Amino acid sequence: MSGLIGKKIGMTSIYDASGKNIPCTVIEAGPCVITQVRTIENDGYEAIQLSYDEKKEKHTTKALQKHFEKAGTTPKKISYEFSRFDAEHRKKFGEVIGVDVFEEGEFIDVVGTSKGKGFQGVVKRHGFAGVGDATHGQHNRLRAPGSVGASSWPSRVFKGMRMAGRMGGDRVKMINLQIIKIFPEKNLIVVKGSVPGASGSYLILERWN
Amino acid sequence: MGKAELIKFVEKEASVAKELPTFKAGDTITVHYKIIEGTKERIQQYQGVVIQRNSEGATETFTVRKISGNIGVERIFPIGSPFIDKIDVNKRGVVRRARIYYIRGLRGKKARIKEKRVR
After folding, report:
1. Residues spanned by CATH 2.40.30.10 within chain A?
2. What separation, in Å, do the N-terminal and C-terminal C-alpha atoms of chain A show?
């Protein structure tokens, strides 16, 4: 695989050669610094750690300051480990990886944290239909979940019963998003479709071969 | 660069620059729209009053309303669409708002829009 850490910039639309309007998301991807190399001898597995986005030194703990100093770079906001990184893009410790790991037209996966929706009922959270009727004697049960189980047997509610609760803020992966365009001079990647999270939130971009 | 600037950069780079006249709600315009039928391409004209311009940048659209056989027809065009061949401004109208939805409820003589005197 190869991957990068990025930031969601926002959405827009682009016309392709046949004049179709394509909804797409602009992602700022990299440049990422390799801040650690995991090896089988040392750690028991192979991976590289990428770091992205500038952070002020005064907001960085001493331990992390040294960690970034070792790689010969400035403190970064986010670090993430990528396992089984492609040999051709796998550079050395302390080197910088940019958008050149991807090519236009490729399909990538994008991981992010979805927007938090707060405490939501079952209709929004699980797609329940609610109670069908607003009239015929119905009263204040329009979006209620209905029965959650039988009575004396099993005398309990089964685990995993879908109910109201916190919605959103989950790790979500969008798979097979096509790269429409790459702007290496500004570190921008434009993918077809939407990606999870609010504008400005961090994303992990991966391409599996 | 801020996020909005980066989006504008992408929109500018990805779109083909096209010269369109300036027009706003209340203006009467003719949109020359390319239509592809099989392999043939022809140009259709659609004339009407601009009801609104919506959004900005590459996602901007405008709505054109006309009365076709006593039935109101509204058509929404994306401003960056490559199918728009050209736009003619036929009349500049005097209206007080940016979105003249009230025109939908008016018929005949009441639906007239005062023309701007161009000096």
Report:
1. 3-117+166-207
2. 6
DSSP state string for A120-186: E-HHHHH-----S-SSTT--S-TT-----S-STTT-SPPTT---SEEES--EEEEEEEEEEEEEGGG
Pick B18 or A99 by higher pLDDT.
A99
Q: Which residues contact A168 (CB under 8 A, 6 or more apart)?
A: A114, A115, A116, A117, A118
A18-37 residues touching B, CB cutoff 8 A: 19, 21, 26, 28
**What homologous superfamily is domain A3-117+166-207 in, according to CATH?**
Translation factors (2.40.30.10)
Residues of A in contact with B11 (CB under 8 A): 12, 14
Instruction: Tell me the per-residue pLDDT of A186-202, one tens digit each, with 9 for 90 and over.
Output: 889 999 999 999 999 99
Residues 2-21 of A with CB under 8 A from B: 9-10, 12-15, 19, 21
Rounded Cα distance, A55 and A58, in Å: 9
User: In which order are the strands placed within the sheet that holds B40-54?
Assistant: B71-78, B61-68, B40-54, B28-37, B84-91
Which of A92-101, A110-119, A141-150, B37-46 is the most confident on average? A110-119
Q: What pLDDT score was predicted for residue B5?
A: 85
| Per-residue three-class SS string for B16-69 | CCCCCCCCCCCCEEEEEEEEEECCEEEEEEEEEEEEEEECCHHHCEEEEEEEEC
Mean pLDDT of chain A: 89
DSSP state of B104: G
Whole-structure pTM value? 0.83
- Residue B68 CA from chain centroid, whole number: 17
Whether chain A has a CB inside 8 Å of the CB on B81: the answer is yes
- Reported as a single tens digit per residue, the pLDDT across B67-96 is 998 899 999 999 888 888 889 999 898 999
Quick check: B10 and A199 CB within 8 A? Answer: no
